[in-house]
Specification:
The complex is a heterodimer. Chain A is of the alpha/beta class. Chain A has nine helices and 17 strands. By secondary structure, chain B is of the alpha/beta class.
Chain lengths: 323, 260
């Protein structure tokens, strides 16, 4: 039996929380299928991170410490992964569904002629088989995916399980990586521009989705409710993509992650990337025509109906209630 | 410069989706399809390069049944020069790797200088095919591009978490996957649609590409054993009644929160 290789990520010198979540999944399936858990940490000046991971469940941690890995580079990272796969005899390779995972996981899978199950929220052991669980159609359906071959590569959704906490005996093994000429070059990381609208500070957010229909309708229907409640207006990604509102209004994993006292989602179906950005809200009201919309899974209270009928009346009722 | 754009036809964002009888995919009869939104941005990125250099050729490639012709005609109407349509039941049920193998066979025959693909498809959301294709072609790639500049080498801004961006340079030929919102996608003009009728769509089979037995459901490395509506957890308390009644209940809830 091969081993399970966890491709850990370093952020600001520390192993990411998402990587310890991978360790949790790896330990679960490793124990049940008799696979050892091993890990890869790559970067520059990562010995503390590698040491910590080896003491917190990462098993044998291969540490690829190289100037070529100081910033994320596809070719350098891929070379490190190849070396780690060779050193670990892994047949199950786990990454996080993060920008690094998006870039790297398919390259690993294709190079091994292996399958990739991406953005999984769970993996279970059934007999000697692994079964992966992931969503399709932007969260509308769940699925069971069964591998037909090994090796396999999977990426797991950050936050899908708790980070591994238990202590386990591991060790750090230095991994030398030879990085030749690279086809890609890291230039810089840009931090998002200062925001004119800081939704993270709002107590109440009223957000609209694509079905609001136009920039004008946002001002006519969504903004008045936000104003009546004394809150801020937000939006889902398709609204910002369409140019109806600037990026600073976007709630979601690629926009702002918010946790107001009240979040009102109007005509938002609840794609995963939006839910990640607002599910920590204290109280969520969802208004949507589609009773099966995933937004109703995270909402406290739902209205199955037309936002154009409900929202204006709600706005008036709020104004009346406030006197 | 030759630019290849990989497009997938997916159910329209407004289509009502139901699981099929076998419980392994959606039922596809009588629903509307469209070009995957991420791929529309990929096509637009290619067409913008052609706008700057009319000698460039934009080749769109898609895999799927007869209905895909409609999407290819749309792409040609928007300004692509020609299309390759891999239309073969033997391709049905391919996983991301099988899809990438088919596209790689087409790309090897075309030798493009640049390949664009959407970051992910709106149906599978796997975000795997583009980088897998680059790997099979042995060319560099980057993912989630929100800007693209070609000035000798290619410079891309890619989206990270929380609104941060990473600037990456790539040697050519290379493959770039595009994020939605990267550009404003053009519509096909009437003139474009008329012109598209004369543009060629080259239809190929899996065997034409030398991939018989290597792609399709039988070769998939992962099988969708079951597709199902997510189990209802706690879920929302769904308010019932007339609009006025529902609004009254909402106001009550907001009052309970101490926000009125």
């Amino acid at each position: 039996m091969g081993s399970i290789l966890v491709i850990a990520e370093i952020q600001k010198g520390k192993v990411r929380e998402a990587s310890y979540e991978l360790v949790s999944f790896a330990r679960k399936i490793g124990g049940a299928t008799n696979r050892e858990v091993k890990s890869l940490v790559m970067g520059q000046g990562i010995s503390a991170g590698a040491e910590e991971l080896s003491k917190k469940g990462g098993g044998e941690v291969f540490a690829a410490d190289d100037a070529a890995l100081a910033n994320y580079n596809l070719d350098a990272a891929f070379a490190a992964v190849q070396a780690a796969i060779a050193a670990s005899s892994a047949d199950v390779i786990l990454l996080s569904n993060t920008p690094t995972g998006w870039d790297l996981a398919p390259r690993i899978a294709a190079s091994l002629d292996a399958g990739l199950a991406s953005d999984c929220f769970n993996v279970e052991v059934e007999g000697s088989d692994l079964v992966f669980f992931r969503r399709f159609f932007n969260g509308k359906f769940d699925s069971r995916l069964r591998p037909t071959a090994l090796p396999l590569v999977a990426t797991m959704q950050p936050g899908a399980t708790a980070a591994f906490e238990g202590a386990a005996d591991g060790k750090v093994t230095a991994l030398s990586v030879s990085v030749g000429a690279t086809g890609t070059k890291f230039v810089e990381t840009k931090v998002a521009a200062a925001k004119g609208v800081d939704l993270t500070k709002a107590d109440i957010i009223v957000s609209g989705g694509r079905s609001v229909g136009s920039p004008e309708k946002f001002q006519e229907v969504i903004k008045p409710l936000a104003d009546a409640l004394g809150g801020a207006m937000g939006a889902s990604r398709p609204v910002v993509d369409a140019g109806w509102l600037p990026h600073e209004y976007q709630v979601g994993s690629s926009g702002q992650v918010v946790s107001p006292k009240l979040y009102v989602a109007c005509g938002i179906s609840g794609a995963i990337q939006h839910l990640v950005g607002m599910k920590a809200s204290n109280f969520i009201i969802a208004i949507n025509k589609d009773a099966d919309a995933p937004i109703f899974e995270v909402a406290n209270v739902g209205v199955v109906g037309d936002l154009f009928e409900v929202v204006p009346k709600l706005t008036e009722a709020i104004k009346t209630a406030k006197g | 410069m030759k630019i290849m754009v990989c497009i997938k036809q997916v159910p329209h964002a407004d289509a009502r989706l139901d699981v099929n009888g076998a419980g392994t995919w959606i039922q596809e009869e009588n629903i509307k399809f469209e070009i995957n939104p991420y791929d529309q941005n990929a096509l637009e990125a290619a067409l913008q390069l052609k706008d700057k250099d009319a000698s460039s050729e934009v080749v769109v490639v898609s895999i799927g049944p007869e209905r895909v012709t409609q999407s290819l005609r749309t792409a040609l109407g928007m300004g692509a020069d020609r299309a390759v349509h891999v239309k073969d039941a033997a391709a049905d049920g391919s996983d991301s790797l099988g899809t990438a193998k088919i596209l790689a066979a087409v790309a090897k025959a075309e030798s493009p200088d640049l390949v664009f693909a959407g970051f992910m498809s709106d149906d599978g959301n796997l975000a795997a095919t583009g980088p897998m294709l680059a790997t099979l072609l042995g060319i560099p790639h980057t993912t989630t591009a929100v800007s693209f500049v070609k000035n000798g080498a290619v410079t891309v801004e890619r989206e990270l978490e929380g609104g941060a961006l990473e600037v990456v340079e790539l040697n050519t030929p290379c493959l770039v996957t595009t994020q939605t919102g990267m550009n404003q996608v053009r519509y096909a003009s009437l003139k474009g649609i008329m012109a598209a009728k004369k543009k060629p769509i080259d239809v190929k089979t899996v065997a034409d590409l030398g991939l018989a037995g290597q792609v399709g459901a039988g070769a998939a490395k992962f099988k969708i054993e079951k597709l199902y509506t997510p189990p209802k957890g706690q879920g929302a308390e769904i308010l019932s009644g007339s609009v006025d009644e529902v609004v009254g209940k909402l106001v009550g809830k907001i009052k309970e929160l101490g926000l009125l």
